[in-house]
Specification:
With 404 residues, the chain is mostly helical. The chain is built from 16 helices and no strands. The chain has helices spanning 7-27, 31-38, 44-76, 78-98, 102-114, 118-128, 135-161, 167-186, 206-213, 219-233, 235-248, 252-302, 307-318, 324-335, 340-370, 381-398. Helix 1 packs antiparallel against helix 6 (118-128), helix 4 (78-98) packs antiparallel against helix 6 and helix 12 crosses helix 14 (324-335).
């Protein structure tokens, strides 16, 4: 596929990411109520622990199967992998919609986690059809589409959540089905014979893929930076609904509004600010500035006691995501054109590892510091610890020499 004629394929893949993130965002405002509905007599703190456990199981499946799907997409193409993932996702959302026990929710999370490859494969697709200089800006567009999904998803989820915690999951299933249909009709394959790779089981597992790619262009240290950054920023999805309910007594609707504000700012930053920031400061300094802003934001949120001030601070917090596109572009160039699927599989596994670590640990920390009988009541402790992790990622990045 010619890299000079990619406008329509880029639009289609951005719509795929947009609809996918809408499906995820729809669920977030109702997660506390969903888990309390299948756990009678439970508190918000109790529900947060179960939510963290199931999120970690979902992430474990992504960790184990992400490189497999990424390597498979290097062989059979991006389109088949995306389509299969979306079709299974429809079933996953329907299971979540009808589940009346926490164990059925567990089964749904396992199935959904195994095939949750749309975002990683979409990123590999964008890498396939972009030149080296286009990568950061286009990864920013992918992030912007994801952010726009969080503009539309949480507000829709908050509104539907007022009718019960099950309604948003039916809407998410419909979005996934619409996504699958649009990709089946309009998405063209991006893997050509020039970049197609034979399937290799050594690259199809997270440990073998990490070992193989870590030798390329200093990717090992970049993987460490990405993992620490992902663990730190995963705190928003893991804790935000529970933190804001306990600290500010926010309803599902208000949680949805706050996430919508974040989504708008996220989309503006990645869609409109990445390219001028990189043009003005370069990729390396843009990445550094993003990490610094993220650290400051997490620490400020941890001590926040006024919900209105928190809403006003969200645009500044969202500016921290400007670090993500140059980080992805850096890794993409280091991996080379023939390893984009494998790289995105490893990135998917690192994201999944973060989502295994963050929910189960941070919800436990949240539980310990938000109970009525806590020796030290501080619901913001998970955000404070996340800020420390992002700070460590920044220090590791300082050790990496500039990319030629």
């Amino acid at each position: 596929m010619s890299k000079s004629k990619v406008n329509f394929p880029v639009i289609i893949i951005l719509m795929t990411v947009l609809l996918d993130s809408m499906g995820i965002g729809i669920m977030i405002p109702v997660m506390p109520e969903l888990f309390k509905s299948v756990l009678p007599n439970s508190t918000t703190a109790d529900a947060s622990v179960w939510a963290g456990a199931l999120a970690s199981i979902f992430a474990l499946m992504q960790f184990l199967f992400g490189p497999l799907l990424g390597t498979l997409s290097d062989r059979v193409g991006r389109k088949p992998v995306i389509l299969i993932s979306l079709i299974v996702m429809v079933g996953y959302y329907l299971i979540m919609a009808v589940a009346q026990t926490v164990w059925l929710l567990l089964i749904g999370r396992i199935v959904g986690g195994i095939t949750a490859a749309t975002h990683a494969t979409a990123s590999a697709y964008v890498a396939d059809i972009s030149t080296s200089k286009e990568k950061a800006a286009r990864f920013g567009l992918v992030g912007a589409a994801f952010g726009m999904g969080f503009v539309l998803g949480p507000v829709l989820g908050g509104l539907l959540g007022e009718f019960g915690p099950r309604a948003p999951f039916y809407a998410a299933a419909a979005l996934a089905a619409l996504n699958a249909l649009s990709c089946a009709i309009w998405l063209r394959e991006s893997v050509t014979d020039d970049i197609r790779q034979s399937f290799d089981w050594r690259r199809a597992n997270p440990f073998g893929a990490f070992q193989a790619l870590a030798k390329l262009g200093g990717l090992r240290d970049m993987f460490i930076v990405f993992l620490l950054y992902s663990i730190g920023t995963a705190i928003y999805a893991a804790i935000w609904p529970f933190f804001t309910e306990v600290r500010f007594d926010w309803s599902p609707g208000m949680i949805g509004i706050s996430l919508t504000i974040y989504g708008v700012c996220f989309a503006v930053v990645q869609g409109a600010l990445v390219k001028p920031f990189i043009a003005r400061f370069g990729e390396r300094r843009t990445l550094i500035y993003g990490l610094v802003i993220e650290v400051i934001s997490l620490w400020l949120i941890s001590i926040m006691t006024n919900g209105i001030i928190l809403l006003m601070m969200i645009p500044f917090a969202a500016l921290g995501v400007i670090a993500q596109p140059p980080l992805q572009a850096w890794m993409s160039r280091a991996a080379g054109d023939r390893n984009q699927g494998a790289l995105q599989g490893v990135i998917s596994s690192l994201n999944a590892l973060a989502m295994m670590i963050t929910p189960i640990t941070m919800t436990s920390i949240f539980y310990a510091f938000s109970k009525d009988d806590s020796a030290f009541y501080f619901p913001g402790m998970p955000f404070f610890i996340s800020g420390i992790l992002v700070l460590i990622a920044l220090l590791v990045f300082f050790r990496i020499p500039p990319q030629k």
